[in-house]
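Incident log, structure service

09:12 report received: a user says their structure output differs between two submissions of the same chain.
09:20 pulled the input from the user's history:
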Amino acid sequence: MKDLKKYRKRSRHVYRLLSIAIAAVILTLIVPVIRAQDDAAVTADTIAALQGSIDTTWVLLTGFLVFFMQVGFAMLEAGLIQQRGVVNALLENFMDAGLTGLAFWAVGFGLAFGTPHESGLFGTSNFFLSDALSFADGAPVYAGAGLSTFTLFFFQFAFAATASTITTGAMAERTDFVGDVIYSIIAGAIIYPLVVHWTWGGGWLAQRGFFDFAGSTVVHTVGGVMALMGAIMLGPRVGRVFGEMPKPHNLSLATIGAGILWFGWYGFNPGSTLGTGDTGLMGLVTVNTTLACSAGTVVAMFFLYIRSGKWDLSITLNGALAGLVAITAGCAFVAPWASVVIGAIAGVLVILVVDLIESLKIDDPVGAFAVHGACGIFGTLMIGIVGQPELMGGSTSLLVGGGFETFINQLIGSTAVVIWTAVTAGITFGGLKAIGHLRVSSKADEMGIDAYEHGASLWPDVLPMPGDGPVMVSETMGAKSPAMGD
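09:34 re-ran on a clean worker, output below:
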């Protein structure tokens, strides 16, 4: 019995030792797995956070470039109009950014990116950015996955300011300043945002499969059509002689402005990737932007030389902008060879449309409709002609893959935006005309809008204010208002 008890006691000790050993082995095997899983989770979270930081930085930096285009538009317009209207143009461009910022914050962003209405026509939430920031347990909570709503707002505000600024060039030198304030607010709050919702906010055009990567339609067609409507309803500047293209007042300023715009377009198009996750796409968009602009620049310069025998700087600048506008919609959807074709055709198209506008006796001092309206429409349609199926989720174009569906969708989208913008801009400008705030008075036409509305002159030593010196504005300009630069 004693031996049996000793055996059982030893057996229990052995079993305990074996149990401990087995448990140790199991723990040795399981703990590293658990730790690896924890490490993987931490690593995944860290990578996601890092990617979000990089994407946010990218979008903000490119947004800064787009906003800097406001300076480019101001310099371009200042260089291409008459000297006595430059102060007005500069103030309008600068003021436009502030007005658009407030209008887009209060109303526009909600209409553009708020919860979609079932009609697909407009957003219904986030007015005044009311849904962008909340507080939980005293800590801030920012709306938006990856990119916060605040980041997206800033980037889109810069686009909205661009659309409104385009219009000022076609209406330069003769628009009542109060009228300019009013139409800038309406453009930033209603006209532009609804088009954004249709295309980028999940609205009805997006649901149809409409393509516009960075805004040939959303930004440039809207701005260009508004510009055309404004120029038509304002009428020409006093003394404007059609058939004789006015001379730019300062080509140095115009060239600086065009150069800034080309530079800023590297925010406009590549920034529309809204992230850095697809580096190949970023590179493609950047190269396509460059090639289209280069082609537009060169072709416009040579095309006018063939017609006139002169190497024209102002037309060359507009050729560059035409190429940029035309490729903006398709920069992510076409191959590089197609971007060259698009830019080259745009370089010719912009000149032909300037001729057309001139023949219709519409006074567009900077060619705003030719550059932004006509080339924006053209670039949008070209996606349906030369778009690459592999870059459009399988959708085919007329020349690549064969098929009419994409082209028809592009045509429907572009036509809808033209009609919407023409009607709303026409109502806006018609209303301003009815209340006497569309065009400046005849006295302002006579003495110059800078002197009349702002009591200022860009070059007071060259063009003094009335009463400031022996040389009067009426004496330097003559009874008849001259063409630009005369």
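09:41 both user submissions now match this output. Likely a transient worker issue. Closing.
09:42 reviewer note: The radius of gyration is 30 Å. The domain at 43-445 is CATH 1.10.3430.10 (Ammonium transporter fold).
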